[in-house]
Amino acid sequence: MNNRRTNLTKLCECAIMLALATALSYVVLWEMPQGGTVTLMSMLPILIVGYKNGLGWGLGTGLAFSLIQLLQGLSNFSYCQTAGAVIICTLFDYIIPFTVLGAVALFRPLDRKRHMLGFYVGTGTVIFIRFVCHFISGVTIWKQLAPEGMGPWLYSFVYQITYLLPELALVLIGGALIFDSHARRILGIDRDYANRKASASDNKEDKSEK
User: Fold this and answer.
1) pTM value?
2) With CB atoms 3.0 to 4.6 Å apart as the test, which of 30, 52, 86, 91 could cross-link to 38 if both were Cys?
3) pLDDT tens figures, 38-63
4) CB of 118 within 8 A of CB of 108?
């Protein structure tokens, strides 16, 4: 019964964070000419729910967010001239880069004192993976949009870093404000740390008894 209630709570949290991320994705601070935007920390809710609830919940919420982003960017598929280009665009512009945001859970330490470091390292890592995905898409699909005299590799690198770097900075600032305030108690992050530590201790005791 407790597990069912816990899962229901996590499901509600994921739904709320997904809705918040979607709403924030419409608050565009800066938009690139061929797609890619700096938003009001739209990735942050997905990162928080993954960091708090674990890998499975994070990846699931990230996948749902990726599908919403795909629906928002359907017009971009007009540039895809082949079935292969459609597949690459689907996977490397949407599904993989947004789903992987939930993998920030892998960087959550058991020690509560290092929670911010874990969040920073995890956030930087998953957003770097997102950059790599968009970079691959850039050098395969969007290379024809490179200015004359600029190679597709350099064009894709400069293009992706131009909007992802400010987005990363905003997310890290937002994360710092949350983890350095009472908001982390409201989100239940401190409580989850205590539960995880107790669970890890119980597992260690069970193994030692065996």
Assistant:
1) 0.84
2) 30
3) 999 999 999 999 998 999 999 999 99
4) yes
